[in-house]
Amino acid sequence: MFKSNIAAFICGILFSIGLGISGMTQPQKVIGFLDVLGEWDPSLVFVMGGAVISYLLLQLLIQRRFSKPMLGKTFQIPSRKDLDRSLIFGALLFGMGWGLGGYCPGPAITTLGSGSLNAVLFMVAMAMGMLLADRVISPILTNKALKS
C-alpha cells in the first residue's frame, strides 16, 4: 500500500510538471486551442498527440511484457464499450466546463498551487457539480434504469 501511494504521488508530481511545461495550466492557451473557428492555437495538438501516442505505446509494451502490474494484482482495463445517456451527458458537461473555464480537473488542481483565484473558483464549482451529480442526477438515472 505504501509503495503504491509513493508511486502515485511521484506520477502526480510528474504529471503536474508536464501540465505546467506544456501550457495546459493556462486557461487562455486552452481556450485558444478550443477556438477552432476563431484565433486557433494548435500548439496543444502536439501535447495531446504526444500524450496519446506515448500512453498507447507504453500500455501495449507493458501489457505484453508483464502479466500483472508491479503494484497491483491485475491490470484495470475497462470492459464496457457501450455509450449510455450518462456518459454522453457527462462528456458534454465536461466539454462545456473545459471550454468555458479553460481548465479540466488535472490542470485546475495543478494551478491551485499558484494561488489563482480562478482555479479555486473552478475547483469549487467542479466539486459542487460532482456532489450534485452523485447525490441527485445519479440516483434519478439509476431509478429510471431499474424501472425499464
Low-confidence stretches: none
Helix content: over 70%
**What's the story with the biggest beta sheet?**
none
Summarize model confidence as the mean pLDDT: 87
What would you call the shape?
A: globular
How many distinct helices? 6
Distance between the termini: 41 Å
* Rg, nearest Å: 18 Å
Task: Give structural attributes.
mainly alpha; 73% helix; 148 residues; 0% strand
Describe the structure.
With 148 residues, this protein is mainly alpha-helical. It has one domain (2-147). Helices cover 73% and strands 0% of the residues. It is globular. The mean pLDDT is 87.
Summarize the structure.
With 148 residues, this protein is mostly helical. The protein has helices at residues 2-22, 27-34, 43-65, 85-101, 105-112, 117-147.
